[in-house]
Design goal:
Blueprint lengths: L12 E6 L2 E4 L5 H20 L18 H25 L9 H18 L1 H4 L23 H10 L24 H14 L6 H14 L1 H4 L25 H10 L14 H12 L6
Antiparallel strand pairs: 1-2
Helix pairs in contact: 3-10, 5-10, 6-7, 6-9
């Protein structure tokens, strides 16, 4: 086939013509071709030296026998070995004395944060800020005590869990069990709101005060300040686990709520629980 040269550019054409326009057969730039050839050579070398092709039950290992899995496995072993000394030190250090060792405290805090995020974050939030029905662990309001030992106990045994040593207290279901009628529950709710200075119906609160003294002071105290030994919340502060609206308080009185937390003993090893206790106590609300 005779070559056709474009008169204007002196470039050979491909023979294709569209609406009188001829397509030029312009060669690719040499730098582009050389780059392409280099990548082809590089890929051949990579496929030869490194793992590349999947097989039925394995893969080609390459001439260098390199394995990213083996590298990561070794890195994990090295990291675990590097941490072993700190975990050993934590095991030997009394719980209340961990904070006296800055290096150990930094290690435990970092480890506790990771453990908390994985195990506790789904309920308490990644930042331990809590939500309705799940306590905020950053404040200084504690149902079962906020000392580091009490926090460890709560984590270890849980709240109303199946563990024999769990924290156990059941607020009566005043409405469900028909211990109080709806009007009495409403009046008590008004009185509870008055304890923390919230807007309330004074007449209803006065009536509710008498019922509160008959039914609630055994756990919450005569002034409503609560009892950590029984897990009874302080009704005089501004912290509300289930909400501070009247309907929230009415529901708490009616149903007794009875939230639960699992016992982590058996799920987590003792050192992990210890690290968690240190971390939670250090969030800012520990007593």
């Amino acid at each position: 086939m005779k070559k056709e040269i474009d008169g204007a550019t002196g470039t050979e054409t491909t023979g294709h013509v569209w609406d009188g326009i001829r397509e030029l057969n312009t060669p690719l730039p040499k730098w582009w071709l050389y780059t392409l050839y280099a990548t082809i050579i590089w890929s051949i070398g990579f496929l030869t030296l490194y793992p590349a092709w999947p097989l039925l039950n394995s893969y080609t290992t390459g001439l260098l026998g390199y394995s990213q899995r083996a590298t990561v496995t070794q890195q994990l072993k090295d990291a675990k070995a590097a941490q072993s000394n700190m975990w050993s030190l934590l095991e030997k250090t009394e719980l209340e004395k961990v904070s006296a060792n800055p290096e150990l405290l930094r290690f435990v805090t970092a480890s506790g944060a990771a453990i908390f995020g994985e195990n506790c974050g789904p309920c308490h939030g990644r930042g331990a800020q809590g939500s309705k029905g799940y306590p905020n662990l950053n404040d200084d309001d504690w149902l079962w005590g906020g000392s580091i030992e009490e926090i460890q106990s709560s984590i270890q045994y849980g709240i109303r869990s199946s563990h024999e040593d769990t924290h156990e207290s059941d607020m009566p279901k005043f409405g469900i069990d028909e211990m109080l009628d709806e009007k009495q529950i409403s009046d008590v709710a008004e009185y509870v709101l008055s304890l923390s200075g919230k807007e309330n119906d004074a007449a209803a609160a006065s009536r509710g005060s008498a019922t509160f003294k008959e039914q609630c002071v055994a756990c919450h105290g005569e002034d409503g300040s609560g009892n950590q030994g029984l897990g009874a919340p302080n009704l005089k502060d501004a912290v509300w686990l289930y909400g501070s609206k009247k309907e929230d308080v009415v529901k708490s009185i009616h149903t007794g709520r009875g939230g639960k937390m699992p016992a982590w003993e058996g799920r987590l090893d003792p050192l992990t629980i210890k690290a968690l206790a240190v971390y939670v106590h250090g969030l800012g609300g520990g007593q």
